[in-house]
Hints:
81% helix; 110 residues; mainly alpha; 5 helices; 0% strand
Amino acid sequence: VLVGVLQGQRSVRLREIALYKTLGARKRRIRRNVLCEFALLGGLSGALGGGLAILSGWILADRIFGFIYHPPWHWLVLTIIGTATLVALCGYASLRKLLDVLPIRLLARL
Length: 110
């Protein structure tokens, strides 16, 4: 799903990077923005996925099987950190080549 979203938004990202470069943003600044944006997206998705997994585990344990559930909170933290890192790296890898291209060439691709 992540690869499909990244490829589907590639033209939008191409415009954004071209605009940043045209306005004088440096490669380091653009890279930091991309990494932060994708890390935030990954962290939120990890929190949502991990939170729903814990909630469904609690519902199964308490309501269906009738025992006390002690959620593994450390796994939730690891899930958030892991998905944030993975999504940030995948997002950066998909846009890495665009950072070296001149803005006029990026705009010509549109």
